[in-house]
Structures are given as structure tokens and as C-alpha cells.
Backbone:
């Protein structure tokens, strides 16, 4: 989109609008958005441009800016959340009605959600045929952003500090900051580092909880610091040069697109069971057990390690996300929405589509979902994917003679009201794994799954 704006040859005023939908995102995501904006503004300033910040409902804010600046119109990159689609359609209609330019561009996904279609012209509900159709179609090459012509006068901008984007974070920025990798240059370096050093082992090691075997790029993708098309083409080039895990990596990247494809075609995926036949299922709601799960105090070591990792770093390994989601929805028979909301509050790579798809996939209520009888056994998963216990040692302190700094950092980060103490014995398991599994199987089978 910036390339298209630059190509007009006209002066460009880059703008970010903090609208009510964005105000409402989770605490860690909102804090991370602030870092992304600061870095993007600095990058524009280094090129003589600026980032103008405004707050309020998008249409009203943009109409005032258009009146103040006399701009010929607007351009933006499309986003596919239901509320964003409604907002952007209203902006487009209002601008067009006044004869102004209102151009939305693709770029946030590998393909537009409506471009990958089944033979009958419908959308995909299963990943593998989606992947085949997407890769057969091909992915457009990314267009590098051109230098932007600056206007003669700049409209006023809010100050980023005055937005207090980190205010809702109970644990404070200092806890998450060392784990954030922020901005376009850092994202690109992350991609190159991954392709240089990790790609060959990616397929074999990506599920290992104790190894830094994946790219970490979800954080940068979430804030538009790197585009999926750039990643796709860099991986394809590595593949041509003989990198072993590159196709597998592109397949993972395509899961993100599949999530947006699903959200576009079935927007209810974030709020309701994707399979309505699950609506009668008596999920448990808020409970002491759900709170213990959020606090990383279930007594199931790998679950607690993962929940603590997310609280401190703003991210969690993909395998661990599946383990904790299965534990919550199956062993604790608790509604997937409780997990989805907590992830949305804690993740700095929060992505509404991947989060919703991930939760519904594990719970069994989603498209292409795991069958109900697939209940991850956290202990077996830990043996397999954390064979020497290094991941658990990094994040668990209780009962250990020399707890790792990361494990202790969790206790320093949590609110005092949780009353957690690393000197206590490890928490007792909330549920015996075999009993929990049997209870879940009985409840799920009775649902007629
Ligand atoms: P890599 O292994 O390096 O993969 C490269 C890219 O492929 C990722 O950056 C990501 O964009 C994409 N990708 C990989 N696996 C998946 C997947 N299973 N689903 C969708 N895209 C994938 N991902 C988010 O970005 N935000 C979320 O809020 C989110 N919530 C999740 C919730 C649950 C319950 C589950 C099971 C998964 C969730 N995921 C989410 C997907 C996945 O866990 C992360 O994308 C992955 O851990 C990111 O790490 P990485 O960048 O190192 O991945």
C-alpha cells in the first residue's frame, strides 16, 4: 500500500487511527502495538516523513483530516476482521460519495480470502486442499515501499505517550520488553537469521519445546512489521537453494492465511462454535480451575511452564499452545472462549484469526478440527517434546534448588493478589490425568461427536 501511495507521486501523509476497536484489544497486544508505532514513526522520520496519530472513530477522524489537509483521498491495507470490514466499507462509501480516492490494497495475507476457491467456487473448510490451491495459484511478490513525498505542511498529531497503550498491563512493560523483537529491520533480520541457521532443522525440531527452532515471526506479522509475501518468497528462494525445511515452513505460514480465509468466510469463528452442533455442549464457565490455569498453577508441569512462558514473554510455543488448550477444554472441560480471551490478553503475537482457529481446532468445535477423542496427554507430550525437561526447568521454580532466572521472573511479574511464591512446594494437580481424560471422553462421546 505504501508503494502504491508513493507511486502516485503526490505528497503522502502516513496516518494511524486508534479507533474504538483497536482500543479494545488485549493488554499485551496493545502495549506491543505502541512499540510497533514508535519504531515505524522513527523509520519514517529517518526518511524525512512522519506518522500522524489520531484517536477516535475512524470515519470521523479521517473526515477531519481530509478537511484539514485537502488530501485527494486515502489508501490503506485491507484487514479482514468483521468489525474492520464494516468500518472500512463505511469509510470507502463516504469518501467515494464525495468523489475522493478510497483505495484498499492487499498485503496482509498471501492471497485475498476470496481468491482461493474450491472447484465449485466456495471456500475451504479443510487445510490440505486450501494449501494445494494456494500454492498452485502462486503468491504475488512483495513490492518494496518507495520513498514518500512529504507534504508542505503537516497536520497536528497526538503524542504516542499520551495514548498510554501499556496502561492495562498489570505486569508492566519491563517484564515483556526484553522478549520483544520490534520493527521492520529487526523482523527482516529475524527472517534472515532463521533461513541461515534454522531452516534445515525446522521440520524435525519445530515441535521441540526446549529448542529455539521456529522463526518467531508471528510477533512481527501481527503488527505488519513484515509481510507474509516477503517471508513466502524468501523461503521459496531458500528452497530453490536446497534448504530442507523450507516447504514445511511455507506450509505453516499458509496456516495463517487459512485462518484469515476462515474468518473472512465465517466471521463467527471468533465468537461462537464454528460447528453449531457443539452449541448444546455444557462447557464449564469461569471457575477456580480456570483461574489456576491462567495463573500457571494447575499442577501439570508442562501446562504451568507454558502458561508462565506466555505471561512473561508474550508468546508461547505452538506445541505448548495445543497442550494448554487441550488441557483447558478437555481435562477441565472449560469453554474454549475462556482460553481464547486469556491468550488475547497475554500474547504479543495476538492474531484474532489464528487464535480463534487454534482454539476451536483443539476444542473440536472448529473447521478441520481434531477429533474429540484426541486428548493430548500433557505428560506424554512433555516427555516427547521436552525430553530432558529443560523447558520445564526454565519456567518452573517450586521445589527446585536453583530455579532458573526465567522461572523466578514469573513470580516477580504476577500481581500480588495471586499470592504466588517460588518457595512453595509445586502445586498439586487439579485433576488426575487419566481421570480427566476418561471424564472428557465420556462427556464428549455423550455429545454425540
Ligand atoms: P513458525 O513455526 O516459525 O511458523 C511461521 C509462521 O507460520 C508463524 O509466524 C505463523 O504466522 C504461521 N503459523 C505457524 N503455525 C501456525 C498455526 N498453527 N496457525 C496459524 N499460523 C501458524 N498464532 C498467532 O500468530 N497469533 C495467535 O494469537 C495464535 N494463537 C494460537 C492459539 C492456539 C490455541 C494455537 C494452537 C495456535 C495459535 N497460533 C497463533 C498459531 C501458532 O501457535 C503461532 O503462529 C506460532 O507459535 C508462531 O511461532 P513462530 O512465528 O515461531 O512460528
Residues:
Amino acid at each position: 500500500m505504501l508503494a502504491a501511495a508513493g507511486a502516485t507521486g503526490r505528497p503522502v501523509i502516513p496516518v494511524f487511527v486508534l479507533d474504538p476497536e483497536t482500543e479494545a484489544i488485549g493488554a499485551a497486544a496493545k502495549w506491543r502495538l505502541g512499540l510497533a508505532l514508535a519504531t515505524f514513526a522513527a523509520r519514517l522520520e529517518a526518511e524525512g516523513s512522519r506518522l500522524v496519530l489520531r484517536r477516535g472513530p475512524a470515519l470521523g477522524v479521517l473526515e477531519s483530516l481530509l478537511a484539514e489537509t485537502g488530501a485527494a483521498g486515502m489508501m490503506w491495507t485491507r484487514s479482514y476482521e468483521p468489525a474492520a470490514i464494516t468500518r472500512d466499507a463505511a469509510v470507502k462509501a463516504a469518501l467515494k460519495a464525495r468523489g475522493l480516492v478510497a483505495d484498499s490494497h492487499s498485503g496482509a495475507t498471501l492471497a485475498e480470502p476470496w481468491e482461493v476457491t474450491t472447484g465449485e467456487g466456495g471456500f475451504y473448510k479443510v487445510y490440505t486442499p486450501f494449501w494445494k490451491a494456494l500454492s498452485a495459484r502462486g503468491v504475488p511478490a512483495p513490492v518494496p515501499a518507495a520513498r514518500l513525498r512529504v507534504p508542505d505542511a503537516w497536520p497536528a498529531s497526538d503524542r504516542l505517550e499520551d495514548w498510554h497503550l501499556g496502561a492495562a498491563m498489570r505486569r508492566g512493560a519491563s517484564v515483556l520488553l526484553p522478549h520483544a523483537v520490534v520493527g521492520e529491520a529487526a523482523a527482516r533480520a529475524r527472517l534472515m537469521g532463521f533461513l541461515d541457521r534454522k531452516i534445515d532443522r525446522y521440520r524435525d525440531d519445530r515441535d521441540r519445546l526446549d529448542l529455539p527452532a521456529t522463526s518467531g515471526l508471528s510477533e512481527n506479522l501481527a503488527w505488519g512489521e513484515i509481510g507474509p509475501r516477503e517471508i513466502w518468497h524468501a523461503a521459496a528462494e531458500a528452497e530453490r537453494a536446497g534448504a530442507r525445511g523450507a516447504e514445511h515452513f511455507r506450509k505453516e505460514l499458509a496456516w495463517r492465511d487459512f485462518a484469515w480465509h476462515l474468518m473472512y468466510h465465517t466471521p463467527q469463528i471468533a465468537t461462537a462454535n464454528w460447528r453449531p452442533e457443539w452449541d448444546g455442549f455444557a462447557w464449564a464457565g469461569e471457575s477456580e480451575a480456570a483461574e489456576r490455569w491462567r495463573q500457571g498453577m494447575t499442577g501439570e508441569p508442562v501446562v504451568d511452564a507454558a502458561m508462565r512462558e506466555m505471561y512473561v514473554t508474550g508468546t508461547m510455543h505452538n506445541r505448548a499452545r495445543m497442550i494448554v488448550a487441550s488441557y483447558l477444554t478437555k481435562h477441565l472441560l472449560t469453554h474454549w472462549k475462556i482460553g481464547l480471551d486469556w491468550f488475547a490478553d497475554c500474547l504479543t503475537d495476538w492474531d484474532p484469526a489464528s487464535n480463534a482457529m487454534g482454539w476451536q481446532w483443539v476444542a473440536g468445535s472448529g473447521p478441520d478440527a481434531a477429533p474429540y477423542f484426541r486428548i493430548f496427554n500433557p505428560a506424554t507430550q512433555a516427555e516427547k517434546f521436552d525430553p530432558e525437561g529443560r523447558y520445564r526447568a526454565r519456567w518452573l521454580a517450586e521445589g527446585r534448588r536453583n530455579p532458573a532466572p526465567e522461572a523466578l521472573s514469573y513470580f516477580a511479574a504476577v500481581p500480588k493478589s495471586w499470592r504466588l511464591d517460588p518457595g512453595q512446594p509445586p502445586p498439586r494437580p487439579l485433576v488426575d490425568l487419566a481421570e480427566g481424560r476418561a471424564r472428557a471422553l465420556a462427556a464428549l462421546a455423550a455429545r454425540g461427536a
